[in-house]
User: Which sequence fits this backbone?
């Protein structure tokens, strides 16, 4: 008698007369939940340490880490798409949309709460990206990259020409509040630092859970073999559409946080060089580890800050050499230093 076969064409787990029993795959979800529990605990502990350490940091360091965490959120969306085999060169558009949405909400509609502005920036970027997501989900490789780059540059051109949005100079954003409380001069930077660290931690933990979910694993399968995913009943276009929309939310959220920290928004947020910096961080981090994204973003901010201070005319050269070094010796990114296996 031929043993029944599973959906993947292999005999069901549990053993038969031809061999010993194999581990029950139904145990894997519980192991994954346990792993997520440890990840959440470590993430919350790291968040608490950073918040407490911020009390003793100089203001320049809290600002640097605020920018690194906010920019890391934008690169987090790129890594989510990279897991599916595509690299967007238009994430600067999401940064700009989130930033302009937060600034306009503050100046035109009187919304001053920092948390509401940050979430509003993410939602607005999601709404703008949603109509383009089904179209972009059909393309791969250089075509996907060029289409996203084109959208970003079209946005840049519109922002440059629209005088109602400040034109090429942009416009300023006032000091936000938090839960209805005005922020004292001495605590503005630290408060925005705490808010950014908390939101980055929450998004990082949610991203890790999503990457390990069925949908996240389907994304990895799409990168390896789209035809097999479709054959097994999965929808490649649906998976890529969802990933693009999630990347847009991350980009808009990060953009709003960046604008609140800088107090200014301008069209260069959507320029191609800005998108290139986020791709730089994603390549530096690799797609295996979520924590590596924020570490890579911090490394970029540190290298850029000190290089521009000591090598003002050649700091881009320093960044390029650093990236070449990482690609040569860590082709899977710095996350591969502590992630075991290539599918995590």
Assistant:
């Amino acid at each position: 008698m031929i043993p029944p076969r599973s959906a993947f064409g292999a005999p069901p787990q549990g053993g038969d007369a031809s061999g010993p029993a194999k581990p029950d795959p139904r145990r894997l979800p519980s192991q994954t939940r346990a792993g997520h529990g440890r990840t959440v605990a470590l993430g919350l502990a790291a968040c608490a340490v950073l918040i407490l350490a911020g009390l003793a940091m100089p203001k320049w360091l809290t600002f640097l880490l605020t920018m690194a965490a906010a920019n890391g959120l934008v690169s987090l969306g790129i890594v989510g798409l990279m897991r599916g085999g595509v690299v967007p060169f238009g994430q600067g558009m999401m940064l700009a949309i989130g930033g302009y949405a937060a600034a306009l909400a503050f100046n035109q509609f009187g919304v001053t709460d920092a948390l509401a502005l940050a979430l509003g920036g993410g939602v607005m970027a999601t709404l703008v990206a949603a109509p383009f997501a089904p179209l972009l989900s059909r393309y791969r490789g250089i075509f996907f990259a060029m289409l996203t780059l084109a959208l970003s540059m079209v946005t840049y051109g519109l922002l440059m020409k629209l005088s109602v949005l400040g034109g090429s100079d942009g416009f300023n954003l006032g000091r936000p509040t938090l839960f209805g409380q005005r922020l004292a001069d001495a605590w503005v930077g630290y408060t925005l630092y705490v808010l950014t660290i908390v939101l980055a931690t929450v998004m990082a933990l949610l991203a890790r859970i999503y990457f390990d979910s069925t949908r996240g694993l389907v994304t990895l399968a799409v990168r390896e073999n789209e035809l097999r995913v479709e054959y097994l009943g999965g929808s490649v276009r649906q998976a890529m559409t969802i990933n693009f929309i999630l990347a847009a939310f991350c980009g808009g959220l990060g953009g709003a946080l960046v604008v609140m920290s800088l107090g200014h928004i301008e069209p260069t947020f959507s320029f191609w060089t800005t998108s290139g910096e986020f791709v730089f961080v994603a390549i530096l981090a690799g797609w295996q580890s979520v924590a590596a994204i924020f570490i890579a973003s911090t490394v970029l901010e540190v290298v850029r800050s000190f290089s521009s201070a000591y090598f003002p005319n050649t700091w881009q050269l320093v960044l390029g050499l650093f990236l070449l070094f990482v690609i040569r010796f860590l082709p899977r990114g710095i996350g591969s230093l502590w992630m075991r296996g290539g599918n995590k």
Notes: The chain is about 65% helix and 0% strand. The first helix runs from residue 28 to 54.
